[in-house]
Amino acid sequence: MEIKKLLFVTKFEELGFDALRSLLNLRNSALEHVVFVNVIERDRVAMRRGKGYQKDEEVRLREAANIRFIDWAENLFEKGMEVGCYIVVGGLVPEVIKATQKEDADLIVIGRSTKGVLEHLYSGSDVTELLRRAWTPVLVYKHLSETAISVEEPFERPILAIDWSPGSLRAVEYLKGLKDTLQEVHLVHVADEKDLKSSSAMAIQKTRKEARNKLEEIRESFEAAGIKAREHVYIGDPDEEIEKAAKDCQATMIVLGSSAKAAWVEKFLGSTPRKISEESIYPTLLIPPEKGEE
Amino acid sequence: MSKKVLVVDDDPDVRLFSVTVLEENGYTPLEAEDGEVGLKKIKEEKPDLVILDVLMPRQSGVRLYRELKTSKALKDVKVIILSGIAKKTFLRFQKALTEFGGSEIPEPEIYLEKPVEPDELAGVIKKALG
Predict the structure, then answer these.
(1) Is A70 an 8 Å CB contact of chain B?
(2) Which of A137, A198, A243, A257 has its CA at a distance of 20 to 30 angstroms from the CA of residue A177?
(3) Does the interface ipTM go beyond 0.95?
(4) Could you state, in order of their start, the residue ranges of all structural domains in chain B?
């Protein structure tokens, strides 16, 4: 599995060229094509009382996006990369999915969702909806430091949270395809306190040992692929422990397998991938299972 | 019979503009919304001239131009590049592709940076088609 083509979805205020630049070390692996996507959401140009559809506003927004994309594209063309672009009016998720399918992209990069609490409750997050419908890995980009002059490269030192789900096992294969980009991978399994069969020290140690043995197999497979890896077992609430592990490992990104839970389950019960993608300070790469594996 | 000119551009407004200029000057216009569709139409319709954008979905104009100029059957199709991307960037990318092992290809006959006036476009089309 390789990342040859990525879709960079931006509204400009949350993701700029510096974010894209921090991902260009993926060229050491296979990246050769970047596609810019800017979706002008319908409510910015339509449905205004007494005004109808504002064609002038659409043209203004399109040209503003076009000018930025031309500048970014010139930068990438001069590096010998292939570049494409979409500037469309519509709903964010359906338009991103359409572009992903047309382009057969290997990765979608998107900023953190800016929907409010009520919008989330009624329509779910953009990221969750994307994962459910696109079957393509999604990187929810966040700036690790707003003030740093040099930008951290997310794919340098990721931690991969493994729960043995099809998505997290697919993530193992996905990262193995990035041998020439990754410096080191930290493999983390969080044993949920609820799942510990007994509260005795012996039982807890046994759970840790079992998880560690399984992680060791994965570490060995990374090392066989020429990638340095280390394994860690944490115990507690997965949402909190994954964040702690990322800090302990000085990670540059969190990688998680995602599941295709029904929309209503996600809305009311939440899920670790969704919470981490929205609340963690780290860029979060979410890998869905293969179609039919969920 | 009037000469066929293919306009390859993802922006429908630009296609409409170019098609209008072509019709008003007695040419037969054809349209394609990206490089992939453009290449298919070039093979099927054998146009006399292609007006090509650079930054497009699926396949950029840089790749399409390279495919044309390295194909024995299509290398003589005349091309006008009409783009917001600067000419020097286009040429640098072509140079980078050549350095990565691609064949040396000629510069485009005519390179116009958007926007253009109708008379200017009509003039270069006439010049390109001799």
Answers:
(1) yes
(2) A243
(3) no
(4) 4-121
